[in-house]
Amino acid sequence: xxxxxxxxxxxxxxxxxxxxxxxxxxxxxxxxxxxxxxxxxxxxxxxxxxxxxxxxxxxxxxxxxxxxxxxxxxxxxxxxxxxxxxxxxxxxxxxxxx
Amino acid sequence: xxxxxxxxxxxxxxxxxxxxxxxxxxxxxxxxxxxxxxxxxxxxxxxxxxxxxxxxxxxxxxxxxxxxxxxxxxxxxxxxxxxxxxxxxxxxxxxxxxxxxxxxxxxxxxxxxxxxxxxxxxxxxxxxxxxxxxxxxxxxxxxxxxxxxxxxxxxxxxxxxxxxxxxxxxxxxxxxxxxxxxxxxxxxxxxxxxxxxxxxxxxxxxxxxxxxxxx
Lengths: 98, 215
Hints:
Chain A is α+β, with helices and mostly antiparallel strands. In chain A, about 60% of the residues lie in helices and about 15% in strands.
């Protein structure tokens, strides 16, 4: 029996799931690259990133080279939560095949 | 959550992950520039005219210049494409691609130095460049779009075909017809591979992919 409480509500939202997926593919993602890959508005992306940051899933790095550059990366906590989320989805799929 | 919703979420995750790691190291306009330059240079070397002797006697040098110009053009178009996507040029994907292709390019440079010391090696230089360029492209296979993988295989198979089947025939042809020199055969090989393949690749990608994906 699948414990549906394991399905992390923070990650389960469509936009945040996409962000977490991309963050899982590379060590760091600059804000503009995330925005371009996800085709999200600045405001929408910032809101989702803030939620993930508050949950401790995403770390923020701010640098100033020629211009300010904000990058995002997945924390260990975020990686574990994302892994658990995928495992839960796989369990649901397996259960459905029954 | 039901099974189909879970499957849909897993599919979205897989597709996003695949898309995030895809990188086109050879831009479509860059390839077109390289292909057309190679065809032009080959035509100048093969058709009787003021450049024929100069180009035929400096086979390796001519192609090194074409290569450098093509690399410069490719970098220019890649920078333009990253600007269109509002990304940084020196991205994680670019570094990964450079690390993947570097070994093949280092071997190509070493072999060029070695082979250019002997006369009559033009065809073998062309074959080495084809094979190593093909290997460089295929070394990006895990994160390259399908068109790059096909281009890589085209170079590999062409070089193998020349080595296995055509070289004995070409050597005989050159000995029978002294005016068909090895450098001419080398130019034919370069025009048919680097010239033609890049032109076809460039045109197909330019007409089939989105402008920000040409890079």
